[in-house]
Each structure stands twice: as C-alpha cells, then as structure tokens.
Amino acid sequence: MSACNVREPRNTVSGDWSGRSPPTTRSSSPPSRGEAIFNKYIDLIHSKSNLSTNDKQAEPPERPFDFYDDEEFAFGINLLNNNVACVGDNITKLIQMAQEPWPDNVKLFQPYEVEQILLPDNASCLAVQAFLKMCNLPFEVEMRWNAEFMSPSGRVPFIKCGAFVVSELEPIVQFAANKGVTLCARLTTEEKAEMRAYMSLITNVLVNAELYISWVDNDTFNAVTKVRNSSVYPWPLGWLQTRAKRNAVIKRLKALHWYDKTLDQVLADVEQCCNSLSQRLGDRDYFFGATPTELDALVFGHVFTIITTRLPCRKLAETVRRHESLVALAKRVDEQYFKRP
Question: What are the Thioredoxin-like fold domain coordinates in residue numbering (predicted)?
Fold first, then answer.
C-alpha cells in the first residue's frame, strides 16, 4: 500500500490575525455624511499605523489624549467642535420652543375617571387641571388606560405641549413659567419660599396618606384599589400588575417610614397637616390674598378628592372635613373654575 502524503495542520493557537480580510462589496449608493467622517478618520489612523510601539512609548504625550500627530489632533478638535456646535444649536432651539406662547392643542393625559383612576392619581390630576384653569391656559383631557406608562416619570397626569411632554404639577408649573405664565409673580421671595414649604408638606403627608389608605389598608385595597387598578387589564395581567404596583408603593412607604404606621398615626399626621394649612389660610379666600396660587390648586386637588371619594375607610375624609376653611376653599375653586352641573 502506498503511503499518502498528509499535511499536518498548523498550530492556530496564536493564529495570524493580521491576515487579509475577505473582500467587501461596496455599496453603489454614496456614503452618508456620518459614514464619510468615520471613513476619513479610519483612513487617517491606518496611514499612521507604521509607527512602532516603542516609538509611541518613548515620549509621553504632551496632550491629555494620545494623538499620533498634529494632523490627527486637528481633525479630532474639529470633529469635537462640530458636535458641540450641533448640540448647542439643538439646545437653543429647544429653549426657543419652550418660550413660545401656549398653543391651543395641549392635551392632558390621565387614567379613566369612572372605572380606573385611584385616589392619589385623581388628586394629582385635579390639581394640575385646576392650575391650568386658574392660568386660563387651554387644554383638552385625554383619558388613556396606560397613561402612567406613557408618562416620562411614570406618574400622572402629564401634558403634551408641542414637542414637549411634561408630567406632574411642579414641572408643569415651571414649564408654564418659562412661557411667561405664572400665578405667583406678585408674591415676595419670602412668600414664594413659604408657598413651596406648604406644597412640600402636602406631598409628604397627604400624598403618603392617600397611598397608605389605597394600598395598605386591606378593606380599601380589596374593595376599591384592586378592582379599579386591574379593571383595564385582562386576567391574569391585571392581577400581576396590581401586585407589582402594590409592592412598589409599599417599598416607597417603607423608605419614608410610613408603612409601619398604624391608621391612627396616619390620621394624626393628616390632622396636623390640615391644622397648619387652616391656620395659614385663615379667613381669606385663598392662601396668599384674593387670587389663587399653585398652593391653592394643590390643596383643592387633594381636599376635593378626599371628601368626594367614597371608600370603605371613611376616617380620612372625616378628618379633612373637620377643617371647614379647607373644605370651603375646595368648593370655591370647584364652583369658580370647573362649573360642574
């Protein structure tokens, strides 16, 4: 039998990675501007590839970036300047758009009022609607079952104003102020700081109390929250989404040391908050004089929602109703700006 000449395979553990690459097929269409810049930069790098590693390490670079020579350095600086100029132009355009007058086609997105929206979300939506009405800014309410997932912050409500999407009361107030519309222009610096302090008090007390009643109180959760929150989802998605949202709310309340409170402790905090608001309001129609501010819109949203929403746990509404001046403020705003039948 004749011996066959068999060529032994080459050891490829340290294979030659600098071999020829397979031929590429060039597109007949001309490259875009970005591709042209990238190809030019790659060609420039390849033209300098004959420099040895020892030569590069011999002299430390005098610049913060390790460029091959002045030609590449100039190219990088030029590219950086172009990018900075492009970003600056875009920011300038956004600022100019933000300062344009309020358009007539603004939409406010929120969950369905009849079958879906919950106590905390309804309070926030009413507060934003009251603020826009107090500023005489036109808007249209658009109800969506997935409004919270459309919101950039994950919270409702949010508005779509031209190219901008803004969620929650304080960012919307600032957005309107950029367009020259504000309710607190007549206030002094001290009064503005006081107003923000009371708004923070409401967020830290009333909002957390509404979340506690809706998601922690078992009677309210089983009879109202679970049913309304899952009503827009098919089973078992509704059950899963409600469970995930409840876990997220409980996690927030634990971080704020509200979850371990008893119902009586929550109501005591609400009572103290309402006392502070009632003392500031006094006998005035609004907190800072004869015309409303953002604080009045926020108080209206929470007080009106709490006293008009029927829940198994009625202690929260009873606590708020004991403060007649706050209830009168809510009725005044409702009659003047909402004109409900």
Answer: 123-219
